[in-house]
Fold each of these.
Amino acid sequence: MQIYWTKIDKIIEETAEVKTYLLECPEGFTWEEGSFIHLALEGFNAGEKPNKSLVRHMSICTLPKENSIGITTRIREQCSEYKAILRNLEVGSKVAVFKTRCNVPLKRENKNIYLLSSGVGLATFRPLVLDYLEHPENVPHIHSLNIDSSKDFLFPDIFKTAADKNFTSEFVDNRKDYYEKVEELAMDKEGLFYIVGSDEFLMQNIELLREHGIQPQQILLDKNEKQLPNFLPVDLSV
């Protein structure tokens, strides 16, 4: 396993609780839209065994052509040791990245794509939308639906409806409106449904989609192969 040590190049205060960290891109490091990395803080490998409390699985919210590894995360006042350390890092601080993988690539199968997310989970979809807007081939339409009660919706410059580009973006601030909208979207029996959020959020969305006839193979989660059976039938989760 190759560990890339890099530096924080810029910190963006997205909202009162959400920050985006832009990391310098190490030479030879690359990824595709929908990828995640393991982001480790200094000291994680100082002992005989790695300190897993200093490592987190994070979605990359940028594309390689942006020349930086973007990580967007929510840091509340009461948070974990990892988030507390991350909150106090500054531009120039060192971090490590490794184990890049993509669970939710943009599928170009001539099917409509629905991006369902909660809060900061929207960051996972940012690179998919950017890639689609520049290269819409074999994707008829993308519809993003995000629920965030804070009303501080992320990336408004990107997540805005563009009818001429067959892209729809919706934000709601309550669960009732959100799930009513999901039911409407589920009327597309051929669509592909990407879901990002807490495990509870995933299960609620999957249950609703399945009730409306959406098949497991139409549902994409940011989970690895070992985790998928916890959410979708084993024989149909790939």
Amino acid sequence: MQIYWTKINEVIEETPEVKTFLLNLPEGFTWEEGAHTHFALEGFNAGDQPNRSLIRHMSISTLPHEHSIGITTRIKEQCSEFKAILRQLDVGSDVAIFKTHSNVPLKREDKNVYLLSSGVGLATFRPLVLDYFKRGDNVGHMHSLNIDSSGSFLFPDTFASSPDKTFTSQFVDNRRDYYAEVQALAADKDGLFYVVGSDEFLLQNIEVLREQGIQPEQIMLDKHENQRAEFLSYDFSM
């Protein structure tokens, strides 16, 4: 396993509770849209065994052409040890990234793509949207639906409806409206539905989509294939 040590080159306050940490691009490091990585703080590998409290599984919110690795995360006032340390880091701080992989690259199958997320889940989808803007080949319409009650939406420049780019973006502030919209989107029986959020959020979306006749192969989750199979085969009748 290769560990890439790098430095923070910028910290962006996206909203009062969400920050993006931009990291220098290590030589030889690359990734594709929808990628996640293991993001670790200094000291995580100082002992015989990795200190897992200093490691988090994070999405990368940028693309390689932006020349920085973006890690976007919510840091609440009451937070974990990891987030408390991360909140104090500034430009020049050392961090590590390793085990980078994408479970949700943008599929180009001449179908409409629907991005379903909660809050900071938009960080996973930002690279997919940018990739679509850069090259819309073999993708129909792209629609983003996000539930966020904070009123402080992430990446407003990216997640803004653009008829010229056949992209629409929608925010709702409650679950009832959100799932009503998911049901409406599922009227597209050929669409591809990407879902990012907590495990509970994933299961709730899968249940709604499956009830509307969307097939498992049309639902993309940011999970390894064996985990994805478990989610998509969940028995909702229990």
